[in-house]
Amino acid sequence: MKQETSKAKAQGAVTEIPSKKDAFSDWYTAVVLKAELADYAPVRGCMVIRPYGYALWDNMRDGLDRRFKATGHVNAYFPLFVPESFLKKEAEHVKGFAPQVAWVTHGGEEELTERLALRPTSEAIICSMYSKWVKSYRDLPVLINQWCNIVRWEKSTRLFLRTREFLWQEGHTCHRTEEEGEVETLKMLEVYRDFAENDMAIPVLVGRKPESEKFPGAKDTFAIEALMPDGQALQAGTSHNLGQFFSKAFDIKYLDSDNTEKYAWGTSWGVSTRLIGGLIMTHGDDFGLVLPPKIAPIQVVIVPILFGKEDDKVLAKARELKDLLAASFRIHLDDRGEMTPGWKYNEWEMRGVPLRLEVGPKDIAKSQVVLVPRDKSGKQFIPEAGLKETIAALLEKVQQSLFDKAKQFRDSRISDASSIEEFNQKLAANPGFIRVNWCGSAACEKEVIEKTGTTPRVMPMNEQHIGKCIVCGMDTGTVIYYARAY
Description:
Elements: H1 6-10, H2 24-34, E1 38-40, E2 47-49, H3 51-70, E3 74-75, E4 81-83, H4 84-87, H5 91-97, E5 102-107, E6 110-118, H6 123-133, E7 142-151, E8 165-175, H7 178-198, E9 205-208, E10 220-227, E11 233-243, H8 245-250, E12 253-255, E13 261-263, E14 265-272, H9 274-283, E15 300-304, H10 311-325, E16 331-333, H11 341-350, E17 355-359, H12 361-365, E18 368-373, E19 380-383, H13 387-412, E20 414-416, H14 420-429, E21 433-437, H15 442-452, E22 455-460, E23 467-468, E24 475-476, E25 479-483
Parallel strand pairs: 3-7, 15-16, 15-17, 20-21
Antiparallel strand pairs: 1-2, 4-6, 5-6, 7-8, 8-14, 9-10, 9-22, 10-11, 11-14, 12-13, 17-18, 18-19, 21-25, 22-25, 23-24
Helix pairs in contact: 3-7
């Protein structure tokens, strides 16, 4: 396919989608713009999420929010502004975010007596409130999540994957014991894995981050890591065991049942709109988006085949089918008369709708419809009788096929290496995850990073085997995955 110029892409004037295999970066941008998921904002480094993209985020948010509430969490909202003194209370935390913090220095024409940070994350402002609310062990646990926007002054930006302002959720909890905090951290990690694999059809590696990749101020950081078609990893969600670091910094103490005062144990966890970027890259093809049915804004699009002579009859049948299916699926009827059926096929295929339903005069005569799955599994002629059940089963099949295809690709891009030389050879031949044994030393980690151009992604908790550290040769049971990453 023809490749667009940078100028055309910047103006949102994409007319064709480049080859995903031959021009992955241009393909990605073209799909985002042409499918009308997002557009470049007049503010440098920011994006406008268009209605179709926001509908996708709505469905993702709803899927996660249901899971959060099922595990006992409630939603709240905290200010966008964080006083500088609050941010500085936890030194490691502020150091980690300092390069990305945007500051408010004036209110109108008046200079502020204290700078206000636009939240790069909300630990500081939320913990300041928890210190007011938590007084007794009876006040615990505190299980709060918020859906909000975040500002990080990124130098290099890309639609959905990295922008200066983005949307996310961030859970922040307080617990009575260290054990409860650990249980919470791993519970929410599992929520993210379940959502990524079952709703987004994206297979992920699950595990602990090494010390160098921890969230600033955390005791431990856990993550889910996905692999994109270009062989680069995408951190798709994180769950942090904060220990008592923030409780001590913000004086979150409670009187326990033994009448002694103790610091609470904290966690935080979050995913963002960068998941949409991961979704696009994982499932999309040269024709555009491919969306898993569970989160697609439109699950079934009805395209009536109009030739003029029996249009009223066909449109009536199309509307009847829409009414029949609307209670069970997210349905759209494309009854535009000025567009040909072929044009509509291409339009909805490009937008990634999981299933197209066609109906024309011949289909009406045979009491059937035509179903065309977006996963290219083949056109089917289906009787109207039992149509809801057939569509439900077909959407489940499409959902599973997308996951299976993505997992097969991911697994094919995991290579083992026992030396730096072998590491680089396999990374060049088969870009993806490189699995190695590691002794745990910072010096060995640094050597791998410097000599391979990758970063450590995750140490799976249930994957251990005795081997020799890839650098120093020490016997170790620790397995860690490396990759180049977004």
